[in-house]
Amino acid sequence: MNPGYAELKAADRVVARFLSEYHKNWHNNFTGLNKRAHWHAIFSARLAGNDGVSCRTIHRTLYGSYGTDIRTCIERINDCEREGFVTVFDAAARPCPASPGCLIGATDKMRERFDRHCRTAIDEMRAAFGDAAVDHYVHTAEWEHFEYDRRITDWELTRGFERY
Fold first, then answer.
1. Domain residues for 21?
2. pLDDT over 90 for what percent of the chain?
3. How far apart are CA 133 and CA 5, in angstroms?
4. Which residue of 3, 75, 98, 130 is 20 to 30 Å from 146, comparing CA positions?
């Protein structure tokens, strides 16, 4: 732990300080985009490949987690687009207004800011919780990703056979 965290004795104070620093980090990179739906739209677009992520996919996550309706989801996507973090396009890769059927892709500005945000957050986590705790979570995430990639779902099998 760095000196800024070492002075805090209670675990809840360490976590509160970390969350405060995380919020500052997010605000420095994504000023004005402070709603949960903004985070989901940015995260989903950053992780999607060049094909983008569908608005419906983001909405399903938001609805399942928070009960967010599709109009609110589209409004948050519009916010991210106005700030220059995402592009909105149709299945033919033509620009279009945000709608339930559109796709969302990350811009270079968003990739750079998101990656900077993640590096800063990991550094702050290491300062707050120590290298061993962060390394454990990284290893766990890598293992879960490995296990996920090993599985082939019934849908993937069916879809794969339909295509070939």
1. 3-129
2. 37
3. 15
4. 130
